[in-house]
Amino acid sequence: MSATNSDRPRKKLVQVQHLKQYFNPGKPNEVKAIDDISFDIYEGETFGLVGESGSGKSTTGRSIIRLYNPTSGKILFDGQDISRIKHRDMLEFRREMQMIFQDPYASLNPRMKVKDIIAEGLDVHHLVKNDQERDARVNELLNLVGLSRDHATRYPHEFSGGQRQRIGIARALAVQPRFIIADEPISALDVSIQAQVVNLLREIQQEQNLTYLFIAHDLSMVKYISDRIAVMHNGRLMELAAADEVYNHPLHPYTKSLLSAVPRPDPMYERSRHRTDYDDSIEFDNHPRTLQEIVPGHFVFAAADELADYQATAEKYLHEASALGKSPLNA
Ligand SMILES: Nc1ncnc2c1ncn2[C@@H]1O[C@H](COP(=O)(O)OP(=O)(O)OP(=O)(O)O)[C@@H](O)[C@H]1O
């Protein structure tokens, strides 16, 4: 796992503040894809964003990279407000923020050679002086993602899904970004290949001090790569905490429901595992809810009269952890 050592000063690389992203606002077909979310992503960390289909995860990633104009709220990158800047002024930020997509088949142009796909960003941002330098950089990137220089002149259809995702990663890395949004980068891959791609992303992160927003629809793999995890539902964040806390000590019923769907390699656990349903009518009971810090670093979408119960549960977890001699919180 990447850098979250508490002795390191933690710099906020991305700050999302009260972000709303409505599609077709004010019209009968209005969709509140993101409905007032706030979170920070620290430099060097992997921030996992998890939720079921339609919860607003991709829209969050696309809003941060400014593929959309936010309906309201702010997005800060390295302290600078980028939520209102014009598209042409986004060019420099676009270099610093790159995206890796879910479908490595759809996201690579089938008519382009691998070397031209990888070098696209180098060309757009004028980062190489001549063809020789361009080829050398492409070879370096192919090597970095575990492919060979022979692959440079081939086309995407000649590669497996996992290899194509490696090409997508090389393309993102070409411009030396600081922040990568990985939108379900392993969901379309065979299970046997998923771990390889996750390991590659982790290795590269450590080498290059990258910051990731890692989007996924379930908690099984995201737990291994994320430092902290936010759980999204209906365009809002239901819970946000250190990855282990979300996985082992979930507080919000929606998180518990998501987790109950995840099999674990523990026969005892599996014998008693049952899927718990989540009744989202509680979100519409007219109790104003916001993301509240229940214990340090652990936030839950809660109404004022729910706080005491959440605090009692969190404290129970803390006692259990200290009885077992574990560090209670690592957020
Ligand atoms: N361009 C758009 N125009 C209108 N509605 C949109 C648009 N993009 C997304 N939506 C809607 O916004 C909501 C959130 O979609 P989003 O793709 O962000 O969810 P998601 O959690 O990433 O789901 P998935 O994993 O299926 O992509 C959905 O109801 C979706 O239909």
TrEMBL record:
Keywords: ATP-binding, Nucleotide-binding, Peptide transport, Protein transport, Transport. GO terms for molecular function: ATP binding; ATP hydrolysis activity. It comes from the Bacteria. GO terms for cellular component: plasma membrane. It is found in: Cell membrane. The keyword ATP-binding applies. It is a peripheral membrane protein. Residues 14-259 form the ABC transporter domain. The keyword Protein transport applies. GO terms for biological process: peptide transport; protein transport; transmembrane transport. Belongs to the ABC transporter superfamily. This is OppF protein.
